[in-house]
Amino acid sequence: MIRKKKMDKKSGNLLASGEKILDLNGNEHIVITCIGGGGQGNIYSTKDPSIAVKINKKDDNNELFKVLLRLPIPKNINITLPIAILKEESGYVMSFLEKMISFEKVFGRNLLSQKDEVINPWLKLLDTEENQDLFNDFYSYQKTGGKRRRLLAYLKSGIIMARLHTTGLVYCDFSTSNVFISQNKEYNNVYFIDADNLNFQEYTKKQGYYTPGFAAPEVISGGGCTYYSDNYSLILSFFWNLIGIHPFKGKRLDEDYDFDMEEFDDNLEEKALNGILPWIRDKEDSSNYKDNGTYSLLVRENSELDILFDRTFSKKGKEKKLTRPTSFELTYEIIKELDRTIKCKNCEMEYVIENKENICPWCDSTQNKILKVNTFKLYPNGKKNKIWNFMKEIKIDKDEIPIPVRIVEDFLIDRLEEELFKIKFADEAMIICYFNEEFEFKLADDKNEKKLYEKVKIEKKKNIQLFCDKKNSPFVKNILIEVEVI
């Protein structure tokens, strides 16, 4: 027998732990807890960890389920989709990956260090009474994956969004509560869990479902959801979790801000969440400027990411949605940033090298050993064009670093994980091995132009050059790969 639902006027239909829900196939699902949701309803985990249940706030006779079945949703896309309609509720059953957690819970956590926990010396120096808040912020940031995991999480989110937009579909209600990532930091699977609002832009622009704090201005004002509002919400969420502050919660919300009585407003928090205030790094209006001390190190002024954020949150970006970056642009800028990001072995913070001395901007360490790989397209007239820049810290002498195929082909979203070759380090030697069979490789200084197949060992050299051609491709030819240890 199904228990009656408990109603909560603030949040709609809420189910208590232990409630039983039936689907039309006669299967019983026992609710555990609410794990997320959006404008249209809530999603619950069940006693079966591979199953989740979506309960709609509005009874629509499961029309949403029928619409989803007709949409051209890409195959193998990481979105949890309905598998059965509920019998006595408006909603459906969906498959759910075990051991995943929402972005909101993983990146928004304030963790506390444990007694006798081993903490790196740089962070330990901050563990004082007067710096406790600062210590907790850095500790939580590192323990939840740091910059690199955040980049990877939003790279994969951007890829999902780009694939939807390619097929003409709008996601609508992106927020940190309806996108999930693997709990284990060794894995970074990302899934969108709420597909209710998916539809063609022709239909979504007539509705405006959103989560407060993440929505584009035109959605809040009733303009409906589009590709542009999807991109706005995705980039806002990315900024918030990367920097640790909402892009519009600047100094005007600080308690010690010196207000003129004419501009005093009790609704500043709401204005910030709705994007009405200038963004905190606005280049034309500094009235809400805020520097939490990390932006210049995590993003860097006038970098590609800084420009991308400004195109989204500036007055022009808010009012003229066509000027905003697309999900394709976002993924491209994130992957470039990811491939240049180094993790310092001293302070364990991540940074992009911006000086010849390779000084970590967080702790001033110069002890990081870095693998640097640059690629160029060579032309008969002697001209060469830069293709890619890849850097990775060398953790130990016998480290093995996979080199992605994008360094010669540029970035393709369907080849994110594919490798070109691996580089190993052993006893002052560099070993290049596991060559991708789609390509041909030669050492640049080999007069015999012998092709490389299995592996090549380079003794006591800190830099080498390879030539690379892709078999059966007229475009990926005459590629120079420069490998260097700095």
Provide an overview of this structure.
The protein has helices spanning 63-70, 103-107, 121-125, 132-143, 146-166, 201-204, 217-220, 227-243, 268-273, 295-298, 304-313, 315-319, 327-340, 406-409; strands spanning 6-8, 12-14, 20-22, 28-37, 41-46, 51-56, 82-85, 91-95, 100-102, 169-170, 179-182, 190-192, 199-200, 341-343, 350-352, 370-378, 384-393, 400-404, 419-426, 429-433, 439-443, 451-452, 455-459, 463-470, 479-485. The chain is an alpha+beta fold. It folds into three domains: 14-98, Phosphorylase Kinase, domain 1 (2-Layer Sandwich), CATH 3.30.200.20; 99-245 and 292-356, Orthogonal Bundle (Transferase(Phosphotransferase), domain 1); 369-485, Sandwich (Tumour Suppressor Smad4). A six-stranded antiparallel beta sheet has the order 3-4-5-6-8-7, with no helix packed on it. A six-stranded antiparallel beta sheet has the order 17-16-25-24-21-22. Strands 18-19-20-23 form a four-stranded antiparallel beta sheet.
Secondary structure: elements and pairs:
Elements: E1 6-8, E2 12-14, E3 20-22, E4 28-37, E5 41-46, E6 51-56, H1 63-70, E7 82-85, E8 91-95, E9 100-102, H2 103-107, H3 121-125, H4 132-143, H5 146-166, E10 169-170, E11 179-182, E12 190-192, E13 199-200, H6 201-204, H7 217-220, H8 227-243, H9 268-273, H10 295-298, H11 304-313, H12 315-319, H13 327-340, E14 341-343, E15 350-352, E16 370-378, E17 384-393, E18 400-404, H14 406-409, E19 419-426, E20 429-433, E21 439-443, E22 451-452, E23 455-459, E24 463-470, E25 479-485
Antiparallel strand pairs: 1-2, 3-4, 4-5, 5-6, 6-8, 7-8, 9-11, 10-13, 11-12, 14-15, 16-17, 16-25, 18-19, 19-20, 20-23, 21-22, 21-24, 24-25
Helix pairs in contact: 5-8, 5-13
Protein name: Protein kinase domain-containing protein
GO molecular function: ATP binding; protein kinase activity
Organism: Fusobacterium nucleatum
